[in-house]
Amino acid sequence: MEKMLQEYFLSYFYRPKNSAMIFHHLSIKQVTKVTSLAVEIVFDIPNDLTADFSYKAGQYLTLKATVNGQEVRRAYSISSAPHEAELKVVVKAVEHGLFSNHAMTLRAGDQIEVATPDGLFIHENSSSPANYLMVAAGSGITPITSMVKHILYTEPESNVALIYGNQSVAQTIYYEQFNDLKDQYNERFHLQYCFSREDRDEALFGRVSKGNLNYFLKQKLEGIAFAKAYLCGPEEMITMTTNNLTEKEVLAKEDIKFELFTTTDNKLEIKEDGHLSELTVILDDETHSLTLKRDENLLDVMLKNDIDAPYSCQGGICSSCICQIEEGSADMAKNSILTDSEIEEGLTLACQAYPTSAKIKINFDEV
């Protein structure tokens, strides 16, 4: 499964140069409850930062706050579209989620630290009319929302089909907004809801399952040839959808792009955990030397030693902490981003990398 996920990611997209993340203090313009468990946050962007906060549909923002005396960073996908005036994210409360529950208390006028947009899960406009398939579940809809609005607005002859899964209407982020888009774009926007705990006429019952996806493709989208598919949500849904689309030859694997919002837990067998490794870090043209145990990941050790390495999710899902291994070796506990060829070239995720050699040298500046 892990290898399959790696092979399907966006290996050819532009990778921005890594460096220590620069955060800006932004005022919150508006906070709106979009479900009982999620809020939409609109940021007030000063004129002198407008260019810094320009973005592509599908990218995310890293938010930073001090909660209970602890610095916490989290990545949240941008739900507004690049052509829109406002910059928005949606934060969904997670049980025991330190940052997400803090976000539920934010109000208009509050300030929060925000890094400039990042991320590789992006839509590049087509020069000719195209059909796009979108598959999302839960809060995985946020980057898809940006893509749907952007495509419908900037590609006037392109079509979008979206299948979107939730428990119920009440827990559906942007339910009314998508209905409005359906009314506005009518023949160009094909919308299918799935509700796992509510039976409604306009929706399929259950999750975004293989059966529901096939129904949508066959009964609602028969004869449509898709240029690309964008998937966002749980790993199980992404794996099922990817396998189904490729097996039925709906799309080739290189035309299926995805972003994980949750992953299965992988346990890495630490070898020689009592042994030490010498770590050299190149970041922003400075060199740092550290010593760590084989059972410590690279990012944790850097942060403990006050090295401001770039990071966001700390779960192997975003791309913030990618670095180049120039000497030595490391194994990753999880990886949903890098392809096999990129790993062979020496790229690794610092938040998931554990040293396997006596010396290891990593470089953030050359990525």
Structural class: alpha/beta
Radius of gyration: 21 Å
Ends: how far apart?
A: 26 Å
| DSSP strand count | 19
What order do the helices and strands follow? Answer: HEEEEEHEEHEHEEHEHEEEHEEHEEE
Record the strand order, biggest sheet: 4-3-6-1-2-5
Q: What's the average pLDDT?
A: 90
The low-confidence parts are 1-17
Query: Approximately how much helix is present in the residues?
Result: 10-25%
- Give the overall shape, derived from the CA principal axes: globular
Can you count the helices?
8
Largest sheet: 6 strands, antiparallel
Estimate the strand proportion: 25-35%
Describe the structure.
By secondary structure, the chain is of the alpha/beta class. The chain has 8 helices and 19 strands. The strands form 4 sheets. Strands 4-3-6-1-2-5 form a 6-stranded antiparallel β-sheet. Strands 10-9-8-7-11-12 form a 6-stranded parallel β-sheet, with helices on both faces. Strands 14-13-19-15-17 form a 5-stranded mixed β-sheet. Helix 6 links the parallel strand 11 and strand 12 (256-262). It starts with a helix and ends with a strand. Residues 1-17 have low confidence and may be disordered.
Topology of helices and strands:
Layout lengths: L1 H6 L15 E13 L2 E7 L15 E8 L2 E8 L9 E6 L5 H6 L7 E5 L15 E7 L3 H14 L4 E8 L8 H11 L3 E7 L7 E3 L4 H11 L7 E7 H13 L8 E7 L13 E8 L2 E8 L4 H7 L17 E6 L2 E3 L7 H5 L2 E3 L3 E3 L3 E5 L4
Parallel strand pairs: 7-8, 7-11, 8-9, 9-10, 11-12, 13-19
Antiparallel strand pairs: 1-2, 1-6, 2-5, 3-4, 3-6, 13-14, 15-17, 15-19, 16-18
